[in-house]
Specification:
By secondary structure, this protein is an all-alpha fold. It has 17 helices and no strands.
């Protein structure tokens, strides 16, 4: 038997509330200082990474239990607990600024470069503010800002290949967003869990999480968020073999992104660019077997929307080369992979490492040419 989904109205925290057999412990964790419990849980996500083969097997019930929301007003109804630090809008703005800057750096050079900085900021500065005193409106915004930072750390952990740690951070991000009453942030955290489950091959769980993410997105007026979540659901459906659903969701995502402003907004989903949409749509088409549409979308991402982050551009180039190779255009693929190596130099990301591994696996089938030999030599130097 795979898992049992918790049916209770109040879900447990990650690693809490379930006995070894998957049943619910009768200790009623929500009777007490919920905010304090949550802060402690976020600050101690655990340093041990779970084995990829066991990911979401033992903990999928907990991940799916996150779909049963706690009372979103539970935190803001209570009187803020006294603390050593008075917290205001300035501290909230600081968290958002630091999160943006760290996110920009990670997009350029990979999550492996800056995660320790983000974790240190979370556990020292942000924890002190979460333990401080504030008005209820500021408290809500503080939890929302912390949710964005924790979501970023989860993404960084995944980009380092630390899947279990990334999952824990995504779950904590969801909790913080739910307590803050931030629907978009909660949907984004679910999106991170769904995306991770797709990558690791846990497709039934991925489809369930992606569906919940997309359903939350329908309540928003942000067209970029709608495109972001629809493409996630489409990717899960395509991976699960449901081409009809995937095609319908792709159309919905395209309609939403066509009505979206190019300039990024302030929220996480508002940074979902037209280029990222084109890249993801291209890879969904590739999964569905339409390599022509896939290549067209990847060229669109690179040439029309101009992805300029080194990590992002490198990943798209690696994917484009693989699609070209599958279509039999090996000379074009080799040229694209040379561009990939140019863009990925110095980037620390498991996605870059996977791209290199896939290119190496195809080297024996490449025709003998000067460009192919040069590619072999460059990959040898990257070993």
């Amino acid at each position: 038997m795979f898992i049992r989904i918790a049916k209770a109205n109040k879900p447990p925290f990650f690693g809490q509330g379930l006995d070894e057999g998957g049943g619910r412990k009768q200790h009623h964790w929500w009777r007490g200082d919920m905010a304090r419990i949550m802060v402690v849980a976020v600050m101690h996500p655990g340093g041990a990474d779970v084995d990829r083969r066991q990911f979401l097997t033992a903990s999928a019930a907990i991940g799916l239990a996150a779909l049963d929301l706690p009372d979103a007003e539970a935190l803001t109804r209570r009187v803020s607990r006294p603390g050593p630090v008075a917290v205001g809008v300035g501290e909230v703005a600081a968290i958002r600024t630091v999160t943006t800057e760290l996110g920009n750096a990670a997009s350029e050079t990979g999550g492996g470069h800056a995660r320790h900085l983000a974790v240190r900021y979370l556990t020292i500065d942000v924890q002190r503010w979460l333990d401080g005193r504030s008005t209820d409106p500021v408290r809500r915004e503080l939890f929302a800002a912390a949710s964005q930072l924790v979501q970023l750390i989860g993404w960084m952990a995944r980009d380092e290949g630390l899947d279990g740690l990334g999952q824990r951070y995504h779950l904590h991000s969801y909790r913080l967003a739910a307590e803050a009453g931030e629907n978009e942030l909660a949907a984004t955290a679910l999106r991170g869990l769904a995306d991770q489950a797709i990558d690791l091959g846990h497709l039934p769980v991925a489809v369930r999480l992606a569906e919940a993410c997309e359903q939350r997105g329908r309540k928003l007026r942000n067209p970029k968020a709608l495109a972001y979540y629809s493409n996630t659901y489409a990717r899960a459906a395509a991976a699960d073999g449901d081409r009809v659903l995937a095609a319908r969701l792709l159309k919905a995502a395209q309609k939403a992104i066509e009505n979206a402003p190019v300039k990024p907004g302030e929220s996480w989903a508002s940074h979902y660019s037209h280029g990222r949409w084109a890249h993801e749509a291209g890879m969904i088409h590739a999964r569905m077997g339409d390599l022509t549409a896939a290549e067209a979308h990847l060229h669109q991402a690179l040439e029309i929307y101009g992805l300029d982050r080194r990590r992002t551009r490198a990943i798209v180039l690696a994917d484009l080369g693989h699609v070209q190779h599958k279509r039999g255009n090996t000379a074009e693929a080799v040229g694209t992979w040379h561009e990939f190596l140019d863009s990925s130099d110095g980037v620390q990301s498991v996605r870059i490492n996977d791209g290199i591994s896939q290119i190496r696996a195809r080297l024996p089938n490449l025709p003998d040419s000067q460009d192919s030999q040069g590619l072999v030599e460059r990959l040898t130097l990257r070993a």
